[in-house]
Amino acid sequence: IKKAAARVLGIAAKDSDPGIRLQAIENLGKMEEKYGNKYLLAALKDPNPFVRERVLQVLNKRQTQQQGNSS
Fold first, then answer.
1. C-beta of residue 50 within 8 angstroms of C-beta of residue 23
2. Who contacts 51 (Cβ-Cβ below 8 Å, separation ≥6)?
3. What is the pLDDT of residues 16-59, one digit of tens each?
4. Considering the entire predicted model, what is its pTM?
5. Element (H, E) at 43
6. Which letter, b or e, does each residue of 5-39 get, where b requires 16 or more Cβ atoms within 10 Å of its Cβ?
7. Does position 71 have pLDDT exceeding 70, yes or no?
8. CA 71, CA 69: separation in Å to the nearest integer?
9. 48: closest CA among 26, 16, 6?
10. Are 48 and 25 in contact (CB under 8 A)?
11. Cβ(2)–Cβ(32) below 8 Å
12. Distance from the CA of 19 to the CA of which of 4, 8, 28, 53 falls in 20 to 30 A?
């Protein structure tokens, strides 16, 4: 189910509407990395700078959380 949900969000992350793409990025960021990261990394090439910036924020937050969990 999680993999299928990530796939649907991955499709939404390529929508023509940047608002839809942003919502997809937000939700992918809440998923486990093994499901969401593939689509988040692909979204770094988004034509909209606001979408790219949000992807970077989501990925940065994940990395910060990982570092906090490992210490």
1. no
2. 18, 21, 22, 25, 43
3. 999 999 999 999 999 999 999 999 999 999 999 999 999 999 99
4. 0.88
5. helix 33-43
6. ebeebbebbeeeeeeebbebbebbbebeeebbbeb
7. no
8. 6
9. 16
10. no
11. yes
12. 4
